[in-house]
Write a structure and sequence with these properties.
globular, homodimer, 10 helices, 438 residues, 6-stranded antiparallel sheet
Chain lengths: 438, 438
């Protein structure tokens, strides 16, 4: 099976655990089979592998997610990087072209496109696999997964099938309706549109060529910015006449809000948290080093991270986005493929951060125009290079760097450094990168 | 008026804003007349001064509060320091002896003892003053303030007066009753015992001499540890026959829990906090640098500090103490007379803190056996002394100190330093102090 996982979006609806650089699919909140916490993307990846160990999985995403994907799925994961965000149709075009031109997938093979973040069980990916097989057999030009609705949701688009058979031709599509209208659709046998599409590779490739003149993947990549933002649903699905939907009645949840996310949590607390016995239906996810104490709350989610603290009624948690949009501020932490950083303190003319490097990893060799830096190694060992001079470092060593000086640090063991930045204009864009001569 | 303010207690009921070293009376949460936030102790001190500008105010407290008191009330505030905690009777004995022997107050002058943390208006201190005058006139050997109850509280002791006159002889005292019993008392005209006592200085001094053999304040101070823990109510008040209560019907609130404290807050939010319009009766006190977002909460208090995060139903917030007792941990921040510190990061073999020194202040000259330290000055200027070597320092300077090395830093302007501590056994007790040769 060739599967394209669409991994998009900034995860403001799950603030403060998601932010501009950590999307919701990377939050490690589910118990995996080994008892460790895993993210949505890790869970989905594992489920696909268990259904089809030979599956050719490609994640279509933006550059900002590459390091998180490699960290969580391993360096060898197939990633098709969009040069900029252009909604799902361009993303699917680019990934389809990537499969064809980079991976050598034949035009007659089927491709299934699937969001990276449904909360499902293996039966879902068995249905996904079957969709791919139906596409390859030519059952229709386009095949969709229709989710059996469990309530008249206003959040999803609806598929009206011609029959209630497991596989049925699609009569029409309906936009997100109000609850009453949704109820009417459901009584007619309507299904939720789960955003899963299967087609023969040639189908999308041909359409792409109709839309824009390009020779191959590299050429399309170069022209990507010129593409119009448009969803695959609008541009393709709703215009296709030869289209069928496969009815799926297993578990399917969209964990896009705290309300739905906490329903999938096995424990009430992740991180340092105490609930008294008067708490009912309370969930806490605490990524800070200090304790959270909850007393007498009902239907509340509490989430704390270096970005901020959310305390919300579960129902109301669906409406946080406009409020989060207004919360300006520094990105306070990030997990990267090379390690992580966390902002510890911000003052007018200084910032203190903790940098953790995984063994064998390093920062870019870089300099800053407008700030000096001081590193104090607090654990581990490695090497620093400062203006070409290499030095072995270990816990307790201090390295000072003036503005303009080129520097990097390479971890031998896991290495932790307290970095104090000093200057009048501290910002993330003040960084020039260089090649490090080996 | 001679007034002894009893400033006691660790403030666990107002965790995480109060901790073992910051008691609730120092939390700056009330709008003062100048619009700035002030603490309970600042508010009470100002109210006493405005009622009696000549008042002789002495705060009876433990050593741990001296720096906070001096910081909030000024260096010249009268403080009688208990060498150890021994409940209210020994504390009042010691403070009374301090007034007599150190301040030279005559035996015939009256003394009024008052808790430092009632939330009241000026009329309360006018009543306090009058109590002192009544004691001095010999109206009774002991005079109390009886607060007109506003509801049948189970939290207070009750005074049963002989009459409903403004000033009445006391018939008897009742322990904290259940609500039904309290209701019965109130129908008889009972009053809450507000913990305010007035007497002629000689009265308590004579009783003290009956209890323990001592010559003067210094001698009593030396013998203080031998005194039994006992409250003034049990030891003196309930045994006195010549005792009257002055009825007080003005505002009197005990802000000992989040529930009552938030009632006294003028705004719903102190610090960086956003409430959506579905929040009802929600209060947030946020001392962290990151935002708090509250959605759809009702009757909830949220408080965040470097110590932790409390999210509590208002009513339930009265019961946090046993939970807070179980939350072990490092003291994460402290305000001191010389400045403040805040723990930024804790790792197995290192700790990173930010130290702020007020202009003209310095640390003790000290050394550590088991840890090295690195200072990076992030703002301001001053001098360091390291093993006797003095050096001028400013933002960007780095000072490294091996274990055993004696060191201090003296602020010229306000000075901020990131201190990285490195070692296997980092703890606050690893500190040897020395005299700094000038």
């Amino acid at each position: 099976m060739n599967i394209i996982l669409l991994s998009g979006g900034s995860g403001k609806r799950l603030w403060p655990l998601s932010n501009d650089i950590r999307s919701k699919q990377f939050i490690q909140i589910f118990r995996g089979e080994d008892g460790k916490y895993e993210s949505m993307v890790q869970r989905v990846y594992g489920q696909i592998r268990s259904v089809d160990s030979e599956a050719n999985i490609t994640v279509a995403t933006s550059k900002s997610q590459v390091s998180s994907l490699q960290k969580q799925l391993g360096e060898e994961v197939g990633i098709c990087v969009e040069p900029c965000r252009r909604d799902t149709y361009p993303a699917i075009m680019l990934a389809t072209s990537y499969l064809h031109d980079v991976q050598g997938v034949s035009e007659d093979e089927s491709v299934v496109v699937c969001p990276v973040d449904p909360y499902v069980n293996k039966d879902y990916f068995e249905a996904v696999k079957r969709l791919g097989e139906l596409a390859e057999e030519g059952e229709a030009r386009l095949l969709l997964m229709g989710i059996e609705p469990t309530y008249p949701s206003e959040k999803y688009g609806y598929i009206i099938p011609e029959s209630n058979d497991e596989l049925s031709r699609v009569r029409e599509f309906k936009e997100k309706p109000d609850a009453e209208t949704a109820d009417g659709y459901i009584r007619q046998g309507a299904l939720w549109n789960g955003g899963v599409f299967a087609y023969k590779l040639k189908y999308v490739l041909d359409k792409a060529h109709e839309m824009i003149d390009f020779t191959d993947y590299d050429d399309l990549y170069g022209k990507y910015e010129a593409l119009t933002k448009i969803s695959f649903d609008y541009a393709v699905v709703e215009k296709e006449s030869d289209i069928k939907a496969l009815r799926f009645s297993g578990q399917w949840k969209d964990l896009g809000t705290w309300n739905t996310l906490t329903e999938a949590m096995e424990e009430n607390c992740i991180g340092d948290a105490t609930l008294n016995d008067k708490c009912e239906n309370v969930h806490v996810v605490n990524e800070l080093d200090v304790p959270v104490l909850c007393m007498g709350l009902k239907d509340v989610v509490v989430s704390a991270s270096p970005e901020g603290i959310l305390v919300s009624d579960k129902e109301q948690s669906s409406y946080i986005k406009p409020f989060v949009d207004k919360l300006e501020g520094q990105v306070m932490f990030a997990d990267k493929s090379w390690g992580s950083f966390r902002v510890l303190d911000i003052e007018e003319d200084s910032m203190t951060i903790k940098v953790t490097l995984h063994p064998g990893h390093s920062m870019n060799y870089h300099s800053h125009r407008h700030r000096d830096e001081v590193w104090t190694v607090i654990s581990g060992s490695g090497r620093t290079v400062v203006d070409g001079m290499e030095q072995h470092v270990k816990a307790g060593d201090v390295i000072t760097m003036q503005a303009g000086c080129r520097h990097t640090i390479i971890a031998e063991t896991e290495l932790k450094v307290i970095e104090v930045q000093l200057g009048k204009e501290i910002n993330v864009h003040d960084k020039q990168k260089y090649e490090l001569e080996k």
